[in-house]
Amino acid sequence: MTHWTERGWVRIAAPVALGAAALALWEVAVQALDIQPYLLPAPSAILAQLQAALGGIVQAALATGRNALVGLLLGAVAAVVVAALASRLRWLDQVIAPLVAAIAVVPIVALAPVLQTMYGATSEMPRIIVVAIAAFVPVFITTLRGLRQVRPVHRDLMRAYGATGWQATRMVTLPGAVPFVFAGVTIASSVAVISAIVAEYFGGLQNGLGSRIASAAAQSGYPRAWAYVVAAIVLGLVFYGVTLIAERLASRWAHMPVS
């Protein structure tokens, strides 16, 4: 137990120490080389803006996070449902594969303005749709792969024991697919935040991190723009951490014995 605790502390302390060293080197380099703020503001200037505009930054992060969360949930649920159907219906798999490939290469910078024009400047729906589309692809691919990982011998064994279709799905297919589903959700969680921020650059409500970054940069408030960038990084880490926790909880549920 002691050995594990020491290793845990090392895993936490090492990246923290590395990050602190990088920030210190960044601060010294900006001061020593007289780097202008429009190129790279000092961490101290960014921290000052974080403290000065903390309320607005939190509100912007909540607005972006809300769009990212709703879009992520919609995209993930749709991906799991479509993947489940495609794993059972060969013809659907053949039809959906090229469509998913096409969706995967849709550029956000081209899609966001089109949706913004369709729904209007006061609607959050374009940003949610962009996030849902971006999240759909990784979740669909990993889920479909997970659903296909069930070995025929396991299916035959369930049939031999007279298991129903739901029991076979509950005891074999779903537990085996859970790690694959959350592997896709983990990737999609970061993609969702990025997509939501990028979608905010193209007009609409000026309430999210993306629009605040663009506005601050346009007004030459570079430290303030970087403060919003830091908030975006924190938001992405929160999404990533929550998905890891959800994966552990779902894995425990999937492997619970059936009464």
Task: Write up what this structure looks like.
- The chain is mainly alpha-helical and about 260 residues long.
- It has two domains: about 1-30; about 45-255, MetI-like (MetI-like fold).
- Helix content is about 85%, strand content about 0%.
- It contains ten helices and no strands.
- The chain has helices at about 1-35, 45-50, 55-90, 90-105, 110-120, 125-145, 150-160, 165-200, 210-220, 220-255.
- Helix 8 packs antiparallel against helix 10 and helix 9 runs antiparallel to helix 10.
Sum this structure up briefly.
With 259 residues, this protein is mainly α.
Count all strands and give the number: 0
Cα-based radius of gyration, to the nearest Å = 23 Å
The chain-level mean pLDDT equals 82
Structural class: mainly alpha
Helix segment tally: 10
Q: What is the second-level CATH architecture of the largest domain?
A: Orthogonal Bundle
Distance between the first and last residues' Cα: 33 Å
> What is the subunit arrangement here?
single chain
How would a crystallographer describe the biggest sheet? Answer: none
The CATH superfamily of the largest domain is identified as MetI-like
